[in-house]
Structures are given as C-alpha cells and as structure tokens.
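In the previous lecture we treated proteins in isolation. Real proteins rarely work alone, and many bind small molecules. This record shows how such a complex is specified: first the sequence, then the SMILES for zinc ion.
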Amino acid sequence: MANPALFQFNLPKSGRPSEITIAQPWYPGIQKYWPTCTTKRLVDPIFGIVAVVIHATAGASSEGAISVMKKPADAASFHWRVPDEDEAQHGHLVWACVPEALAAWHVRNAVAHADVNKGAKKVNHWSLGIEVVNAQKDDPFSSWQLEAAARIVRYCWAKYPRLVHVISHAKLDPGRRSDPGENFDWLRFRDLVLHGADEAMPALVAAATPAAKIKTRAAAGCCDG
Ligand SMILES: [Zn+2]
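The predicted 3D structure, ligand included, written as tokens:
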C-alpha cells in the first residue's frame, strides 16, 4: 500500500504550462469567514509561493469540509475544495474558498520537512492548500477528483514562477495527519500534473493531416545547396 507520508514530487524546470484556467467559483458566502481563518502572507504572494499541499477531508461533503472555516476558534482553511462524487458540482467545478494572495490555515506552523523549502516552518505562508472531499474510509477518489486536483496544480504551476514542491499533508505532519490517505493514487496524480493528460488536444492539432499522409517531394535538393 502507498504510504501518504512519502507523497511528494518536485516540478521540473521544463514543461511549465503556459496558461491553465479552472472553473472555480467562490463557495457561497465564504467571504465573510476570511477575517477569522486567513492571514496576510509573510512572503510575496506570487514569487514567495513554492509549494502546493494536498489534503483530503475526513468527511463526505463540501459543506462539512467548509464548516471548519466557520469555527470561531481553531478554524482551518484551504484555497480550494474538490467536490466528492455525490455532489452536484462533481465533474464541473472546484470551490474557491480563500484568495490565493492570503495564507490559508491548512498546516500547523510548527511543522516542517527538510525536503520542502529547505525545512522552513510556517508552511501556510509560502504554500497553497487543496482539499479533496473524501470520507477516507471505503471511499475511493474518483478519476475526476484526481484530474481536478491535478489541474489546480497545473494552474498554480503556470501562475507561480517559483512553485516547485507538490506534497501531502501527511509528509509535513506525519505524527498527526495521514491525508490525502493511501487511496489517493499519487503516481497517477503526479502523471496528470506533469503531463496534463486531462487536457484535450487543441482542435487545430487534432484536425491537422499527419505529415506522413501528405504527398510531397523528398527534401533532398531543395535547400541543402
Ligand atoms: Zn490535511
């Protein structure tokens, strides 16, 4: 079985997507909770972002997941939530929950890992958090959930020039957390992030005639003199 405490990969210097869009409306009414579950970043909100942290809830709905943002004390928060299979938004959109320019509260300030940002603490300040809604027990992640989470990371990769680490919450805080859990297919997720396998081939490319099917003269003699 996969061990979530080992889930991490770093984005290569080549292969950065040029521009990725995602359907990400604000979760209804979420704005009013920002004052009690977010912080102004200690780093530049674009050039200071170096990591994306992958989480999964231990609940079965976005509404339940959102409730942690509404707690008057001990609130937690995430930038995006990926709906579960039985929610109407599944297959269509991810919920934006916190502005990317602000630090969401998804990792404890005290934790750090030597493999990530040179072991720096206060992870929330230099990271973005994605929460995938999943009951954790007897609840497989859907293909779309993996694709949607991967597409958010590709969007971030295109947007944040210094983004490099993609890491599980479990690796950052193994004593207390195991999310996104062993059912999260990390290798497929990594493949989707690195290669954008969910992105359709552009129509102009798909419609083009393969070069092998085009009759033409052999190249020799045309331009090698
Ligand atoms: Zn988590």
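Summary for your notes: The first strand starts at residue 8 and ends at 10. The chain has one domain: 4-213.
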